[in-house]
TrEMBL record:
PANTHER family in the cross-refs: CADMIUM/ZINC-TRANSPORTING ATPASE HMA2-RELATED (PTHR48085), CADMIUM_ZINC-TRANSPORTING ATPASE HMA4-RELATED (PTHR48085:SF5)
InterPro entries on file: ATPase_P-typ_cyto_dom_N, ATPase_P-typ_P_site, ATPase_P-typ_TM_dom_sf, ATPase_P-typ_transduc_dom_A_sf, ATPase_P-type_domA, Cation_Transport_ATPase_IB, HAD-like_sf, HAD_sf
Pfam families: E1-E2_ATPase (PF00122), Hydrolase (PF00702)
Entry GO terms, CC: plasma membrane
Gene responsible for this protein: cadA
Protein name: Cadmium-translocating P-type ATPase
Subcellular location: Cell membrane
Membrane topology summary: Multi-pass membrane protein
Domain P-type ATPase A residues, every copy: 121-221
Length: 642
């Protein structure tokens, strides 16, 4: 009973139509003699009232230059009443008003993945005060630097860094990562992540408005309110479809001389595939993308993404990880682990990006780092440290050569940098670092080409040799290097094969993302300026999701076209049959509803199906290529990132 009342509250016209029908049926059978007349008057009056409402609405739409397909339903109601088919007119009214409920259900199901993000947005935070006391405050009142307590199972309210030793977090709602992620002290914890089984303390690094989750919410709200140009194009079929239906109905009447044929044809002329099926497909496609960690800002973007013919990629942070990682450890007179432990012990307190990469590599190997360390930092050159009483010099070739005459500069591949090491006056080896290519970059490029992308290009501000090496590893032969932001914009403007998709992550990518036909930001770790300029934001730090987004968009558009074609095709067949008198009006009204249902169910297929190769398939670490060696960059500075 509760569900019936809720349905009646949400869809009063549908409920009233059903009620009128039941009362008319009751009168028809319960009132001998006068029953049929009472039923006819009741149904006819109600149908005329609904027709008047629909007619007034269409007049208002026409004044705004909008033409709807409901004119067919209106003409069908009036024509069935004119030929005495009042029961058929009631079924048409039910179809017309019931379409609202059907559309609402379809859109509700399609939006589930999008609205999940909105419903889970954090509203409050536990502010840690002095002496361990906690005060609950609104999340909008949290300021940068405040300590916050996150209880087990709670969502991190704002972007923060972990203060405790470690914690595990479920980041599936923001990144799509299905497994819990372990974060350690000092690691960034994004808002929207759900804390594990132990309470943790974090320090806010952003306000609520500037945090990851709230930015995602804003993107989702924008996506939910949008309509694709493709869907608006579907609306333009209204006039020709209406004219075709009226022509068939008029021809049937003219040839047979029977006005009933006119009514029977219009009863089966269904507008639903155009009014509902196409929008439902696009909403479902955006939901599917969100489930795969990709937020598409609007339906128009989804339609353009489906037609992409050229893909341009930034290098640093997009095709590569965007941060240096240890690529080789080249020891002299000791093992690689011994050399790495000495260097990491000397660097462990440094905030330098290369130092952090070396420490991460050492801890990742499970090496024990010394705490008996004193350090003399030499900005721009390196450092001298005493580690367990041993003099360790780490840095540039020149710095190590001052105390170690036997220092040897190894050959480097493009994009690789060296950290030289001397121990107690002797050359001890070299640690090389590079910005490694993402393991799934090559497979992503292959998938894009297989899906119909004809041209793939690298646009980067890096040196030509470095860009060429990365491009060769991922299978791209068009490389445009040493491009400043304006140069990237000019390059995209000059690319043939539209639409053009640009993928980037940094602040310097924001202008080119804005001018591309489809701008995609690697938003998991990218700059907020890039995310704001982009049409699509990838919430997961995996470039394979770009290929997923293209696959989803193309499948969505294909399903939308199928739904429109299926609905119109079935309607035309039924109209022809009705023109020959094979379908009575009351039967045609029921068949019309079946056609509507088939078209909508087909549109909802965009919710499912494989997105393509997902992140798990691409996590196998790609082997480094045998690239040509570069001449020794002997004077390379320790803090230079190529």
């Amino acid at each position: 009973m509760t569900r019936v009342l809720e349905f009646s509250r949400r869809y009063p016209t549908v409920a009233l139509t059903v009620t009128v029908g039941l009362v008319a049926l009751l009168a028809f059978f319960a009132l001998p003699g006068s029953g049929p007349t009472v039923a006819r008057v009741l149904v006819t009056t109600f149908a005329l009232v609904v027709a008047a409402q629909q007619g007034w609405g269409m007049v208002q739409d026409a004044r705004r230059g909008q033409w709807g397909l409901d004119v067919l339903a209106l003409v069908a109601i009036l024509s069935t009443l004119a030929v005495g088919e009042h029961w058929a007119s009631l079924v048409i009214v039910l179809m017309l008003t019931g379409g609202e409920a059907l559309e609402d259900y379809a859109e509700h199901r399609a939006r589930d993945e999008l609205t999940t993000l909105l419903s889970r947005a954090p509203r409050s935070a536990h502010l840690v005060l002095g002496e361990g006391s906690v005060l609950d405050v609104a999340v909008d009142d949290v300021t940068v630097g405040q300590l916050l307590l996150v209880k087990p199972g709670e969502m991190v309210p704002v972007d923060a860094v972990l203060v405790d030793e470690a914690g595990d977090f479920d980041e599936s709602s923001t990144t799509g990562e299905s497994l819990p992620v372990v974060r350690h002290r000092g690691d960034t914890v994004l808002s929207g992540a759900v804390n594990g089984s132990t309470a943790v303390t974090v320090r806010a690094t952003a306000t609520a408005a500037g945090s990851q989750y709230q930015q995602i919410v804003a993107l989702v709200e924008g996506a939910a309110e949008s309509r694709a140009p493709f869907v608006r194009l579907a609306d333009r079929y209204a006039v020709p479809f209406t004219l075709v239906a009226l022509a068939i109905a008029g021809a049937a009447w003219a040839i047979t001389g029977d006005p009933v044929r006119f009514a029977e044809v219009l009863v089966v002329a269904t507008p639903c595939p155009l009014l509902i099926a196409a929008p439902v497909s696009f909403i479902a496609g955006m939901s599917r993308a969100a489930k795969n960690g990709v937020i598409v800002k609007d339906g128009g973007t989804l339609e353009r993404l489906a037609r992409v013919r050229t893909a341009a990629f930034d290098k640093t942070g997009t095709l590569t990880h965007g941060e240096p990682r240890v690529s080789r450890v080249l020891p002299e007179g000791r093992t690689a682990d011994e050399l790495l432990a000495l260097v990491a012990s000397a660097e462990r307190l440094s905030s330098h990006v290369l130092a952090q990469a070396i420490v991460d590599e050492a801890t990742g190997r499970g090496l024990d780092l010394s705490t008996d360390v004193t350090v003399d930092d030499l900005p721009g050159r390196g450092l001298r440290a005493h580690v367990d009483g041993r003099l360790v010099v780490v840095g540039s070739y020149d710095l190590v050569a001052e105390t170690s005459a036997d220092v040897v500069m190894p050959e480097l591949v493009p994009g690789e940098m060296s950290v030289m090491v001397g121990v107690d006056g002797r050359y001890a080896g070299t640690v090389t670092l590079s910005d490694e290519v993402r393991a799934d970059a090559a497979s992503t490029v292959s998938r894009l080409r297989a899906s119909g992308v004809e041209h793939v290009v690298v646009l980067t501000g890096d040196a030509q040799a470095t860009a060429d090496a990365v491009a060769a590893e991922v299978g791209i032969d068009d490389v445009r290097a040493a491009r400043l932001p304006q140069g990237k914009v000019d390059a995209v403007a000059g690319l043939a094969g539209r639409p053009v998709m640009m993928v980037g992550d940094g602040i310097n990518d924001a202008p080119v993302l804005a001018v591309a036909d489809v701008g995609i930001a690697m938003g998991a770790r990218g700059a907020s300026a890039a995310s704001e300029s982009a049409d699509v934001v990838v919430l997961v730090d995996e470039i394979s999701r770009v290929a997923d987004a293209v696959a989803i968009s193309r499948r969505t558009v294909r399903i939308a076209l199928q739904s429109i074609g299926l609905g119109i095709g079935l309607s035309l067949v039924l109209m022809v049959l009705a023109a020959f008198g094979a379908i009575p009006a009351i039967v045609g009204a029921g068949l019309q509803e079946v056609v509507d249902l088939v078209a909508i169910l087909n549109a909802l297929r965009a919710l499912g199906g494989p997105a393509g190769e997902t992140s798990g398939a691409a996590r196998v670490r790609s082997a480094r290529p045998t690239a040509p060696t570069a001449s020794g960059e002997a004077q390379q500075r320790r803090d230079a990132l190529v």
